[in-house]
Amino acid sequence: MSHHIKQLQVLSPPTPSFPSSRPPSFLSLSLCLQEAMRRTVPALLFFAFASLFLFAFFSLHLSRTTQLIQHFPISIDNINYAIFHDDNHHPQLPATHRALHVSSIINNHSAISTVSILFPAWELLLVVSPDTPISADDTYVCLFQNNDNSTVRFSKKLPFSNRTTLTCPMPESVKHLRPFYQPVLAGSSEKDARAPGPGSPEPIRWNFLVYESFSTEKDVVVFVKGLNHRQGVNRPPSDFKCVFGDSDKNSVKTAVTSSTQEVFRCRHPNLTELEDTFYYNEQQQLERRRQDVTKLKISLEIVDGHVVVPSVAYYTRPSSRTRLTTKQTTSSKPDPDHDVCACTMVYNVAKFLREWVIYHSKIGVDYFILYDNDSDDNLESVVLGLQQEGYNITTLFWVWPKTQEAGFSHSAIYAKHLCKWVLYTDVDEFVFAPYSWAHSAQPSKRMIKSLLPKHGNRKNNNKNVAVGQVSMKCNDFGPSNRKTHPAEGVTQGYTCRRRFEQRHKSMVLLDAVDYSLLNMIHHFEMKKGYRSRKLSIEEGVVNHYKYQAWPEFRTKFRRRVSAYVVDWTQALNPKSKDRTPGLGFEPVEPKGWADMFCEVRDERLKMLTQRWFGSPTSNNGGYRMLWQT
Predict the structure, then answer these.
(1) Where are the transmembrane segments (predicted)?
(2) Cβ partners under 8 Å of residue 456, min gap 6
(3) Which of 195, 335, 382, 459 is the most exposed place for a label (fewest CB within 10 A)?
């Protein structure tokens, strides 16, 4: 500041001096005034232009910051977060702390108790407290701070905390407001609901959040966004503590034993200590002990700075009961129920699901686990229909954006008592063994198991270890001149592919998965004593019907599910293998799309599935496939 003052002082015109013997004449005063103006005007102009430049610079900076808010960058170095209370509890924090409180609106009798999370594309997820009466038969709105509102869509219940979720879009009129507050969830016909205002909580940002947890017999696995930002670069476990409870006074902390990607493992808390903390009389303690599970808020604390990550996850006390399985061994550890399962993450795949499930079931997949990323098509009815036909299939609601790796890590512990091996593919991917299956008259339950290592594959030689993962390369098929989705299925409609394989998918022995649960979407890190085996292209391959008819393919612009893959609408990392050659950053159909990616005509699986599942029709020698309804 002193430097600028000095500049102004130098630029200021000198005070005119006059001989003391006589007063200055009019001409002298005029000449002095002209000289002063000559020196002052450039300085004033310079000052004015500098002010305009600085104003424009800061305006542009604020404008860019506003535009980038949809990516929700959060600097955890400058913001301290409090652990959140459920329902109407608001922890008292020092004035130096900036906390995002999760609760219903205070003194708003029409509001429904919720927690709001701001998702990408300005979508709000509302998590309703479990004891709150709410009915899908009623209609609700999200009421915002400027009295604008948006329609609420009922979603599904979070499977491990049994909390109802709803979504609503943020209106355009609210996006520019700062701060914007958590909306009030109210009945559409209610007249006395008051809009949120100063003192109301802000929504949690989706990219700095504890969103799920799972208790094993030995520890607790916590899923957290915003701590390990870069793939392959993980902060040490000692940087964190697991926090069980509602506040600093009513919580217990345990050590973090693993920190990889979005997956953190913690020691179980001392349950006696928790009970003594939360339940103050003997009757309450006895009542709690009679319950099979205990629900407590769980979060992660960044030790340096005592920053607690916002959380919507709950701790479940591990059950002491023995899991019921269809097979028992003489050892204390029961065998899994199924030899081979398949696991995938899905969004609006109802029209594809029957073909994928029926095909893989017939070749030996015993059980299917779908992580549903908030589908809003008729997925549930298709799953119900398959279940009624005798297929073993279950759906887990997994609403969290860009968490495919974490979802698969979750499945590796969730399915450990259910499945021995798990096939990780998408619903547009089909396992195929060209050499051994091509001439089979009928599918067999032994087929997929023939790709796995034989029982007792560990050799005595110390240089050889057991196979814990089988990897298969992918053939990527193009649109094959199709303009719409083939009603007879993807195996029938898409028959032209790229020449060279791009990626691979895997079948994983869950007992061989590393303690960290580290995975690169479709293959896992193996623990010591296990290795991966890659099949040749003739032994086993995955037909990936990747580049489909444009109306189907363009839906991939919605959002990539991987945590470390850039969304296609972002002009970043244009040479990534995840991106499609010749495609820009907007869902605009490239010229000649229907004929792209057609280098090799490959009808082997088409002919095989016709033989296995097709019934000839009278229409031009066509087939009606088993999965067609």
Answers:
(1) 43-62
(2) none
(3) 459
> Is residue 535 within 8 Å of residue 468, measured between CB atoms?
no
**Does residue 509 lie in a domain region?**
yes
Residue 88 maps to a domain: no
The backbone region for 364, taken as left when phi is positive above 0, alpha when psi lies in -120 to 50, beta otherwise, is left
Q: Are residues 221 and 189 both part of a single domain?
A: no
Among candidates 137, 135, 148, 214, which has minimal Cα distance to 180?
A: 148
- Model pLDDT for residues 382-392, shown as the tens digit of each residue: 999 999 999 99
Statement to judge: residues 270 and 403 lie in one domain: no
pLDDT at 55 over 60: no
Q: Please confirm whether the linkage preceding 179 is cis (ω < 30° from 0).
A: yes
pTM greater than 0.85: no
pLDDT in tens, 449-484: 999 998 666 554 446 789 999 999 999 999 999 999
Residues 531 and 404 in one domain: yes
What is the number of structural domains in the chain?
3
607-628 tens-digit pLDDT:
999 999 999 987 777 889 999 9
d(CA 391, CA 368): 8
The domain of 236 spans: 209-319
The answer on 410 and 273 residing in a single domain is no
Tell me the pLDDT tens digit for each residue of 388-404.
999 999 999 999 999 99
Which of 205, 236, 269 corresponds to the end of one domain? Answer: 205
* Two tokens, residue 65: 């910051």
Q: How far apart are CA 271 and CA 579, in angstroms?
A: 48
Determine, yes or no, domain membership for 623: no
Flag whether 13 is in a domain: no
C-alpha closest to that of 490 among 369, 390, 340, 349: 349
Q: How many CB atoms lie within 10 A of CB 340?
A: 21
